[in-house]
Amino acid sequence: MKLVRDARTLKSKAIESLRTAMTAFNSYDDAGRVTTVLMHSQHACEMLLKAVLVQGKTKVFDKGSGKSIGFEKCLGLCQGHHGLTADEAGIMRAIDAQRDAAQHWFVFVSEDLLYMQTRALITAFDAYLKRKLDTVLQDHIPPRVLPISTIPPGDFEFLVDKEFNYVNDLLQPGRRARDEARARIRAMLAMEAIVTDEVEISERDINRIEKAIRGGAEFAAVFPRLATVGTTTEGEGVNLVVHFTKKLGAPVHYVGGDDPAAAAAVREVDLRRKFHLQRNELATKVGLTQPKAKVLRAHLGIDDDPSCCHVFEFGSQKIPCFSDNATRRMQEALPNVDMADLWANRKG
Fold it and tell me: What is the pTM of this model?
């Protein structure tokens, strides 16, 4: 396949970054090793995605800013229009989420999980590179320098359960290892990107998970998304091929912010998705002014209903936001409520 100039350059950068990541993985020096692997692996993915987009004549520069589009946009375009599979996108997104956490704060990724994810990424990278750019990774990176581990690869479910139990152990009284435990939780949260399109690692999520683990919650209750991830492996040693997949028949369970029994499974990004209306937006949807909408909310107890209202805290600011449940309840109540009477008898 004849590649256009920019696609050829981007492909070279992708392979160079992957080589750097592999060199770091196999390095004897532990200082900065995990961060280097994550950062260069993510960069390799982004360059590959952009190479495919450029080769496919898709614009990779934003019209407004004039800057090249980011990783998430590239991933969406490749998945939607350029043959990137959901499984391939999942492992790339997981590496990106962990890289983001490592770059902006810190994570602790266990060796066996790092190995399995890196091998899965190489599998996805190689397959997409060959499929879309007609290039075989082995022609550029000999198998002997791909990630090698003396630890036999285990099943993903076993590995994350082992990691969960280790975090639980770190959080036991007297261990004084809370920072490491939270860093490991952060890494596990990032791995949820394997099976979900949107992952944000919030300290509020980590707080909820830490509290749940201290309270004796089980793995599946705390990380329901990770519980749906399975792996298939072929070969061994340098020829190991790893695929992350969603377990056949795995239940899809959406947790609401109003479900206190499943609080540990709630993610901040899910709360923002559910409670997406601010007060002025809710009033507009219902067709009332903000003051009258406030009176109706008070009459119906909307602000006290956890299925309708959630208060987000940003430092000292507390901002109530509302769900579609609030809109529905208010719209259904309007024909049966005398707004003039409510307004005349309002308090305050």
Answer: 0.73
